[in-house]
Amino acid sequence: MDIKFLNATVITQNGRRELLCNAGVAVEGTRIAAVGTSAEIARAYAQLPTVDATGKALMPGLVNAHTHVVLLVLRGTVEDMGAEAIYGYMTPISFAMTQDERRAIALLGCIEALRSGTTTIVEPFRHVVTYADAMAGTGMRLWFSESCADALTLKIRSGIYEFDQAWGETFLERETALIEGFHDTHGGRVQCQVAAHAPDNCSPWMLRKLNDLRDKHGLRRTVHMAQSKGEVAQVQRYAGCTPAQYLERNDWLGPDVVGAHWTYCTDDDVSLLAKHGVHMAHCAANSSRRGPHAAPLAKILDAGVNVALGTDNMTEDMFQAMTIGSIVHRGSYGGGTNPQPQALLDGATRNGALSLGVLDQIGSIEAGKKADLAVIDLDGPSMRPQINLASNLVHYGHPGMVESVMVDGEFLMRDGKVLCLDEKEVARNAQAATGGAWRRLHEKNPDLPLPDSLRAD
Ligand SMILES: [Zn+2]
User: Cβ neighbours of residue 453 under 8 Å, at least 6 residues apart?
Assistant: First the structure.
């Protein structure tokens, strides 16, 4: 749409990290046409409708560099269980869910993301092709991939690792359908990647197949890496090396790769990954639910790795990602005030864009870039007094202060109201889908107990 914002504080996140006061931003079509003083924008774009942004900040839409929206179905359960969650719950429930249940939960995730000022979601997961159109219909910027594996992932929770190419082919078929149906569609707003689920469940055959798909379609790659002690132990048993070394041996490291987590990386792994220009998707909030995330963040940051922030499972709140990310990063340095808030704000904006290879398109508010932005209320109590806005946002920011969100120049949320979805209906559908999914999970896996609150009357 064509519109101009006047009298705003603009958190540009440009190369100089300029914070502009009493500024204006003009939007024409899908792009930011100009950024300047209010007077300049008012004069040059007099014909455009005006939003008076007095008392508000415009910030680039946040980029969630790694998440699985469908796993909101587990919210309020595995965070507080001692059980192994990845193969114990996340994998089996993803197969137990119906297409309608995945879609219902995915839309809940989109609403939570929008309400936290997020405009871009990176979604590697299973069966994405069954709910991709529902997410694309919201108007959000999306990066999809089928998280492929050729180990029989449903057996791993029983301690059995078996590779099966026929099983792996089912993932590759879904990935191919996803690429053919969604890559570079919706005016470029929807893109695809290739995803290897993790080094312990992808054989060299699967990694080669995924590289073939990358080459054929010119895609970028993502992988979970050194996420659990079980993964590290299995790769050691199977290949006699660390997950990072295993990926290098199979031509799976490079500047087009985003690795999520790095939790149990060794110092040598960090050097190896940095040397190859691999990006990190750091999901500090989710990874810290059972205690502060153990990844060697200080070494990773000192090695110059591009660290992009994500939410991973059970939440889409990017403010939590920044707040807890700050605590975890500083903790990794033994406490203190390094890194400063600006680095976390970069992690939620520019670094995510860089990890996707699109920093020239999104991640900052600059003329020529996509009009992906969030309008923040600066008069809410958590934003006052205002001395250092980046500090306020990182330490005290929360979704309640996000007023409006625009993607590709279109408002998806405006003045506190989500425009692209019916929030109440989505919440009801998601609750019903959660009950259905858990009951089916329990039927298929009687050893996984059904939460009392979800028992049918
Ligand atoms: Zn993940």
Answer: none
Structure tokens at 267: 């110092």
CA–centroid distance, 215 to ligand 1, in Å, is: 24
In words, the CATH class of domain 3-60+372-416 is mainly beta
> How many residues in the chain?
457
Distance 295 CA to ligand 1 centre (A): 15
Name the one residue in this structure whose structure tokens are 């587990």.
74
- Distance from the CA of 258 to the center of ligand 1, in angstroms? 11
Under a CB-based contact definition with an 8 Å cutoff, are residues 308 and 258 in contact?
A: yes
Ligand 1 centroid to Cα of residue 287, in Å, is 10
Give the start-to-end residue ranges of the domains of the chain.
3-60+372-416, 62-355
Give the tokens for residue 174.
């879904």
- Longest CA–CA span in the chain (Å) reads 68
The string of DSSP codes covering 351-364 is HHHHHTT-TTTSSS
- Percent residues over pLDDT 70 in the chain: 100
Q: CB–CB of 25/5 below 8 Å? A: yes
Q: Is the pLDDT of residue 457 over 60?
A: no
Q: How many CB atoms lie within 10 A of CB 69?
A: 25
pTM: 0.98
**Residue 32 C-alpha to ligand 1 middle, in angstroms?**
32
Residue 291's pLDDT is 87
Three-state helix/strand/coil letters over 161-207: CCECHHHHHHHHHHHHHHHHHHCCEHHHCEEECEEECCHHHCCHHHH
Fold of 62-355: TIM Barrel (3.20.20)
Region for 405 from its dihedrals, namely left if φ exceeds 0, alpha if ψ lies in -120 to 50, beta otherwise: beta
Distance 52 CA to ligand 1 centre (A): 39
Rounded to whole angstroms, what are the CA distances from 271 to 245, 249, 275, 337?
11, 15, 6, 24
Q: How large is the average pLDDT for residues 346-375?
A: 98
Task: Quote the pLDDT of residue 301.
Answer: 96
Report how far ligand 1's centroid is from the alpha carbon of 394 (Å).
Answer: 23
